[in-house]
């Protein structure tokens, strides 16, 4: 257990990161991500209000659907990345643990009269991820099998009313389940009792998301990175990219028109040696950027990394040198993800 | 075979004649988790006591390995390059890192014996 954002977090269970990672890709891993911030936004005009802070198209989101987006700073940086689901009479939000203390006042500041943000600190969140996750869970709640990627719905699991989204942070099929905190242990025990389910910690969560090319706030995204630099233009709605009516839009528009100075890319080190976050990235002896997440990919069975490089060095196949402990480690720019996404589309 | 001695950096050392074999302890491999890469010193390198001369990388993190005694690196464990997981499966056997020559027995004797190291690890818990 290690401290993280005020929570005691399991980095790994007795099986270890490698086994937990590989088991999740082969079968199913259960992750306790209750540190994530949950909240709901209630009232007429909630979606339009949230759009002041995010370039995501929230108003077009149908009831029972969820999407990924970013919250913006005034200067076009990323305040946080988040999930938003339309529950019909309200929006349901999932925020980062380390950022929720900033997100909540930022959202409250843009709300009109009649729209309220309600943090839900009394809810736990678990993720059941992997190709075996939904088949196993469907034995407890058959309706979950009919959900598609990014569907969001209520189900009773082990007698407990839960909010289920078919999504996750591993690149695999699976679900995230929001549970009233006092009943979370009972649900977690019921999930762990399902055939093929193994508990998995934050270490495996990190190696799984990195192989899947998914960003970690604080590593790959921060208040200096824009959604254009971060290669998250796909999270910006078409209507939003015409109206430019969100906080920080000016910088995004300029970068889309004129090109961003730097871009987030996949980086494949040659050989077996991992290159970690903050490793300088060079082209022909000149520093062009930095690794923001790097480690060993158990499924790829090789080191994997992502980072930001100058636009001119961002083309696939560009030869790089990663400066690890004073030695130049050869690497190349590569497409993301390292492990193909296997969502239930 | 000579008995193992231990350092507070969680390395073990075994002296045969004036050649010391060095690796990391079972406690260290357990804390590191699955080892995926090792960076070993060049044979012939002169090292001072406490000098960082190897790196072990697990899925989690990178850690330095220090020379517990001064001397010259005479051999490294080539098997680790192909199979770094030997450090997890046999930390005090096939998972050895490197050998240092020209070592004085007294410098090794001064290190912790097995009982002292076990007490040291307990004191960290």
Automatic annotation (TrEMBL), chain B:
Q: Which residues carry this modification: N6-lipoyllysine?
A: 60
Q: Which PROSITE patterns match?
A: BIOTINYL_LIPOYL, LIPOYL
Domain Lipoyl-binding, chain residue ranges per copy:
19-101
Which SUPFAM superfamilies does this UniProt record tie to the protein?
Single hybrid motif (SSF51230)
Q: Is the Oxidoreductase keyword given for this protein?
A: no
Statement: the UniProt record of this protein carries the keyword Protein biosynthesis: no
Q: Which HAMAP family match?
A: GcvH
Task: Please state what the protein is called.
Answer: Glycine cleavage system H protein
Organism expressing this protein natively: Falsiroseomonas frigidaquae
Q: Which gene encodes it?
A: gcvH
